[in-house]
Amino acid sequence: MDNYDRLKNSHPCFAGQKSNKGRIHLPVSPGCNIECKFCDRKINDYEKRPGVTAAIIKPEEAIEVVRKSLELCPEITVVGIAGPGDTLATNYALDTFRLIKQHFPNLIKCMSTNGLLLSERAEEITEVGIDSLTVTVNAVDPAIEALLNSRIIYHGKSYEGKEAADILIRNQLEGIRKVAKAGITIKVNTVLVPGINEDHIEEVAKRVSEAGASMYNMIPLIPQHELSDCKAPNCSQIDKARLRASEFIDVFRHCQRCRADAIGVPGEKDFGDQVYLNRIAHKDTFSHG
Ligand code: CLF
Ligand code: SF4
User: Which ligand is nearest to the CA of 109?
Assistant: First the structure.
């Protein structure tokens, strides 16, 4: 059985139908190195969407958090890091996974990134033993990506518009190629934005599949921040986009748009506030799953 087949039976975000498996998100990654126009990171305990966490924790706090979460929810098979910011913008996520590997060798390690630094950190990701990686690719055409992203900070320099988009897309695809070659199973998330990338989905699905991704997931836009005037896609737009993508790659259809501190079986009772509440909260957070 290859890694992808194994995950289809044990990972809630790779199962073809809703599984009864759970995941814990460890919100260890503050800050980000790009500026998506729909991103609105918040610290609170009531909004149910990516980009929100009740707290940021330190890598060394993660062990106790996982231990407690497994007691509350034994269905957990996956430890994921999905923000609040980008997992590769700092070293906290990879440091945390090293500790998880040591203390919970049987849990699946799942990481989510915007992919800006994926190519240059691919060897490290492989060495840490990440089992599944999600890369958020919202466009493979720089002109479209520039409508979704204002700027990137890359090696200490700020880039905007198409120039930024070009660097981001190149690094995402190159990173996917490297990591897939190393045997890590890759899922690509695309935030579906009507009027911007809805007719571009086939192209994204095709290119990421060619690069080595195995699974594709559409996250319907939540209109906020600079895209607050855009409309969220309706069911028929989402279905159409999924159908188009499915010509090129397996499509995951049960995404719950999880918080960065979600704990439990997706779509069922969440234990996040029980575990994370009252922990020290810092400003400026996000996540994408
Ligand atoms: Fe978390 Fe994301 Fe891993 Fe899943 S979530 S880091 S791949 S363990 Fe899953 Fe949640 Fe959708 Fe993400 S339902 S938002 S796809
Ligand atoms: Fe960064 Fe993710 Fe927010 Fe984009 S959505 S700015 S990648 S944290």
Answer: 1
